[in-house]
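REVIEWER CHECKLIST
Item 1: Sequence provided? yes
Item 2: Single chain? yes
Item 3: Sequence as submitted:
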Amino acid sequence: MKRIAPYLRVVAGMFAAIFLWLAFLYVIHGDVAGFFLMLGLGVGLGYLAIGRLIRDRRARLDAERAALAARAEAGHRAYLAGDPAAFAPPPDPTPRPPVRKGVVIAASVAALFVVFGIITDIQDGLEDPGEPDATTSTVPPAGAPASRTTSTTPAAPSTTVAAATTMSTPVSAPTMTAAAPTTNVAEAAPTAVMPDVVCMDLQAAQDTIQSAGVFYSRSVDATGQGRAQIVDRNWVVVAQSPTPGAIIGEGDAVLSVVKEGERGDCS
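Item 4: Structure as written out by the authors:
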């Protein structure tokens, strides 16, 4: 049992890291019950993994301090009694337990496994662990037209002020008309023509919209899972709103995306 106990601690530590990562995912998706469940499992397995190591190290340090204090007291008494043993060299320190190479290799492999899983989750957009797989969700086909939105620009109102002056003579005085300056409300926000970005990767679609004159566009998960687009180049635009040619302003462009390799990604 003593030979396999270190490997069991490595396995417990690996699963502790996995459960703690799942607790983080539940937090960012607002699942409080799942967070506390995963946190409890992670902390419990973490204690099984390193709790005994911490206790053993603390006991060894306490024993070394107690031995050093006892030797100092014995040396002091021998010095007062004139015993030459008080001037003897100190004993060798307690050797530390050897590190087993197999345990180090197993811990390294487990750590790489956990890191690889975390990186994969980040590239997949930090999916909700409680949601079904994205491949089983309904995704609009690549050629499906986006919902048509008609954008209209309201005409700027003009203000006309008429002042009529009546003269005392029977001859009517001319009417004076002063036209107030016309303000176009469409000039208050930058506008551009919406380009066709369907089947582009999200990064290229955003760059194309920015080149058209609008800096800010939005993207949503077309599967309805609410996944975040962490690496834009790993997502493909499957639908857009409004349609190409419409007038848009900042934040008007909405791009529906799926992960590269999922159904409906134009491949």
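Item 5: Key structural point noted by reviewer: The longest helix spans residues 32-80.
Item 6: Recommendation: ____
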